[in-house]
Design brief:
By secondary structure, this protein is mainly alpha-helical. Helices cover 35% and strands 0% of the residues. The protein is globular.
């Protein structure tokens, strides 16, 4: 899996040896595609966020999820 910070390709062994961090820049990986059923990778998630936010042109308040969760729980 490629690191979204530096682009270094990290094999499963590299990620495990570095406790889920990039072997080059130590950036932490959020997803591990070999665990669970989702098969989501950090680059896939970063691309989805970029696509949904029109490459950073849309903004969502930092607390929008907690506001939505509070409203939904009422």
């Amino acid at each position: 899996m490629k690191c979204i910070q530096c682009g270094e390709d990290n094999k499963l062994k590299d990620r495990k040896d570095n406790y889920g961090r990039c072997k080059n820049c130590q950036h932490p990986f959020v997803f591990e595609p070999t665990e669970g059923n989702d098969n989501i990778t950090d680059p896939m998630f970063a691309r989805a966020i970029a696509d949904l936010s029109a490459n950073g042109t849309l903004f969502s308040p930092q607390n929008s999820f907690s506001i939505s969760s509070t409203i939904a729980s009422k």
